[in-house]
Amino acid sequence: MDTVGLRWVGFVGVLILLLGLSTLPGERAGASSPQKWPSQIGILTQGRGEPELTVQNGRNLPEDPPGGGGRFGASWPTGLARGDFNGDGWLDLLISYARVGGGELAIRFGNGRGDFTAPLRIPVTGQEPSAILVEDFNQDGVLDVAVGYADQPVISIYVGTGRGSLQWEEDVRLGFMVSGLAAGDFTRDGVPDLLVSASDAPLLALLPGGEQRGFGAPWFFSLNVGGAVQGLGDVRATDLDEDGRLDAIVLVRGQRSGVAILYGAEEGKFLYPQLLPVGVAPESLAVDDFDQDTRTDIVVTDAASGSVFVLRGRGDRTFASPVSFHAGTLPGPLTIANLNNDGYPDLAVVARGSNHIVVLLGSARGAFERSVNYDVDSPPVAVVAGRFRQGALDDLVVAKQGGATVAIALNAPPTILVTTTADEVRQDGRVSLREAILAANGDPPNSDVPSGRKNAPDVIGFDLPEAEKSGGVFFIRVNPALGPLPPLTDGGTTIDGTTQRGFAGTPLIVLDGSQAGAVDGLTIASSLNVVRGLVVSGFGGHGVRIIGGEVPVTGNVIAGCYIGTDASGQQARGNGLAGIHLIGDSISNTLIGGTAASDRNVISGNGSEGIEVRGLARNTQIVGNYIGVAADGWTPLPNGGNGLLLTGTDNVAVGGMASGAGNVISGNLRHGLQVRNSTGVRIQGNLIGVSARGTSAVKNGGDGILLVDVFNAQIGGVSSSARNVISGNEGSGVTLVRSTTSKIQGNYIGTDVEGRRALGNSGVGVHVDLNSSNTLIGGAVEGAGNVISGNRGSGVFLGASAPGVQIFGNRIGVDVTGQGALGNGGDGITVSGGGNHRIGGSDGVMRNVIGGNAGDGVKLLDAVENQIVGNAIGTDVGGTLPLPNGGSGVLIAGSAAQNAVLQNVIAYNRGAGVRILSLGTGNRLSQNSIFQNEDLGIDRGGRWVIPQITAITEEGGGRVTVKGVFPAPAPAGAMIEVYLADPDSSGRGEGKVFLGSTRANDRGDFSLALSGRTRGEPITCTATDFRGDTSEFAENFIIGEGPLSVRVLQPNGGEILIGGSPFTIRWEAGG
Length: 1071
Fold this sequence. Notes:
Layout: H1 3-19, E1 41-44, E2 58-60, E3 76-83, E4 92-98, E5 104-108, E6 120-123, E7 129-135, E8 144-149, E9 154-160, E10 166-173, E11 178-184, E12 193-198, E13 203-207, E14 219-222, E15 229-238, E16 247-254, E17 258-262, E18 274-277, E19 282-288, E20 297-302, E21 307-311, E22 323-326, E23 331-337, E24 346-351, E25 356-361, E26 370-376, E27 380-386, E28 395-400, E29 406-409, E30 415-418, H2 433-440, E31 458-462, E32 469-470, E33 473-477, E34 493-496, E35 509-512, E36 522-524, E37 530-532, E38 534-537, E39 544-547, E40 553-554, E41 557-559, E42 562-563, E43 580-583, E44 587-588, E45 591-593, E46 602-603, E47 611-614, E48 621-623, E49 626-627, E50 644-647, E51 653-655, E52 664-665, E53 673-676, E54 682-684, E55 687-688, E56 705-708, E57 714-716, E58 725-726, E59 734-737, E60 743-745, E61 748-749, E62 766-769, E63 776-778, E64 787-788, E65 796-798, E66 806-808, E67 811-812, E68 829-832, E69 838-839, E70 849-850, E71 858-861, E72 867-869, E73 872-873, E74 890-893, E75 900-902, E76 905-907, E77 914-916, E78 924-926, ...
Parallel strand pairs: 30-31, 31-34, 33-35, 34-37, 35-38, 36-39, 37-41, 38-42, 39-43, 40-44, 41-45, 42-46, 43-47, 45-48, 46-49, 47-50, 48-51, 49-52, 50-53, 51-54, 52-55, 53-56, 54-57, 55-58, 56-59, 57-60, 58-61, 59-62, 60-63, 61-64, 62-65, 63-66, 64-67, 65-68, 66-69, 67-70, 68-71, 69-72, 70-73, 71-74, ...
Antiparallel strand pairs: 1-2, 1-26, 2-29, 3-4, 4-5, 5-6, 7-8, 8-9, 9-10, 11-12, 12-13, 13-14, 15-16, 16-17, 17-18, 19-20, 20-21, 21-22, 23-24, 24-25, 25-26, 27-28, 28-29, 32-33, 81-82, 82-85, 83-84, 83-86, 86-87, 88-89
């Protein structure tokens, strides 16, 4: 360790010794509470911050085996994280432990009610884990874990098995000890990369993802600014400047301490670091929009000053000067949480010098002027926040050095019980839903409901009498005389229909607007509210509406509801407008649905959109819902408009890669999903136009997905967990209009969920048009290719004003295996005007298989400067199985010019291999394997000069020389390509195997020496002239059997011959 690092550690150590620890491991007294605690209590919260904070005393989780945590015991915790490791939709805990002889990870599985199992323990490579990171590195929809160490210069990767456990995958040697880990797609290939900071060197390492197994070799970046930085700390990844590239934020330590920002550049590189001085001993780091002004801020804990420093972002790569707020003694690790109901992110900080968790409450100015201290029974090590029991607010989990190493403090607001279905406001000893909402807003109408708790969270539960049940459910019919139900304005309110006795998975509480007129069912105008387990139907307006305003409206959840149906979820009882409607730029982080089956909303039968989002709605997630179908997942209950309509949004996720995250968006009268004027939408894991099983069509009336004026959309991904099935729709599968930098990857478009049976869209598979530039269909990595088959129109249609499309690695007109035909009704790919597209590539993973289509494999109509490279057209990927297209393999027509057809296998097509009918020039063919097509291999309609092979001389040992002539008006420099022919009855068999090339001289003569040839082989050739136009194949010439031909070389007509004088005649012969 360097000298400065030793001084820093020594300084912190002296502080600890001077201050003393409030408890030793195993004692039961908090820093400010000398009395003994009950053994089950690990965090003392009661009476702290009431009524705004409702965090309850934290209970210790039982140890297995019981006993020692802490440095005086067998092991001690070093880190804490959360994630859904077993795919049940509930958050689990991950704890790292240091232990002499070998560290370990422990997973505790959550049940959604704040309870956890005994730990599942997994040994790790090093003795002292220093950093853990949870991420789906291999993109299989199951969480993985990266572990760094304080005693080993490696990173360990553990992959999720899908059953809740982790399996060691690899150790990556870095040469330094690890202090921080972050993940993100720095290389922009659709796969997460891993960013690692060194504790004992000024180095960052970027490990690129996307390798077949694990990560690629690390790339190193030095932050040694003038020798003043000796080590790094925490690291985070985010797009600070919103340029579409991830940036790195890392703590630096040494003579210059603070935060270094490395702005992302192309191909995973960074610009020179920007160093911001912050504190003396920076410990931990967090990034978020703390003041909710849409710009990212940075928070740093500083152990030396006992402070949290806030650097407010300005959005232009600059930050305001750091502002400090007291955060206890020796503040260290921290987590971002929503602990009260105001919508501004809060912080929970480990104060290691005083056995406290310090909660700092956020505000509109990004300030943390209010704080609350929670005592911990033994030295805290780490803290994490999450909705562990599905409430409106976050709970806290603390890892600590003590007999019990983990404690959880649940956020449990008081409950207001609704006891009548009547929609009334009167003093009658009962509580109506209307009265409960008024009380939750801090304005109780009478003494039947609890006294108001303004600016405090509440739960509205249900205890309705059986006598008020009708048809097995409870109808709360909104009273038109009282108007719509009051909006949720106070924040932090949970309306939970699942609390009603008898609830068994389907909603029992029906919020009925059939008599209420043109009003909305429920309106949310504040933050961190939850609507769960209700039927909302029959309203003339929207079912549920979230409205943005002057203050942030963030973190709201709608889950487990039927919106627009009856209580069975099988019959339409639609709301007049959208089922769910979000409007306003101040809305963010809304969650509609969830990955657990119990969180699924059925949003069907509504008069307009299923879900409509207008405004930025940053980081909204729409996951796990049925939209346009009944609760059975296949009966159509159409919404009258689009399934989803997103307008003006930013970074909205529709579906996801986690198990259960995909939506079923089917049966709607218009498009499945329409997105307009938006940025960064991610559409993954959904079934669009098909049933929940993905085996039958439940068509949307328009396109499956329509993007208009959208930037940087991601449709699908490089893993099967990101795949959308977009099939059976009345329009096209995917349509892009004026949308740029879109990625369409890994989807099944026109097939069933297995990719083996046609469920075609009635239009084309993918339609890109009208200034939609730089679209990527497929990709250059494994898993990025789409199956685009079975559609009534072409597989892919590129319009005249959609430049720069790349089409890589797809199956177009064939099934997922690439060996069975599932033809599109038009061409495989149609390019109509425009150009500058790339179809395929020389790398095998970029090869498209284009076969089985009714039209041509690839059609270039009036298109220029396109490259068709390395594809299998009319055959399988190996070029052995016939998968014929109904027309030509490639058709170049109209005024198409300057196109290149290179290194493709073009075989078995019903028309020509390549047919060129274009009046344009520069259409070049080179090194293709063309055979077994029903018409000519290359057909130019007899309008072009064809080269002739005049002789093949055998020289022994398989060596031959091919000679010929290209009788064009300007033959000089023409490229002659010679092929082993696939003979046919025309005598002009196609060029199957490229053998070599040469150039013609100014008389058109050419000669090419070949080796490894055999007598009886047919040979042909093509010529590409000075304009770049390639001819048809020449007449085949059979080695040793061709027709005898003699060409006199001398005399050549230019000599003077004297009668009676001897002279020499030179000739060449073939055949």
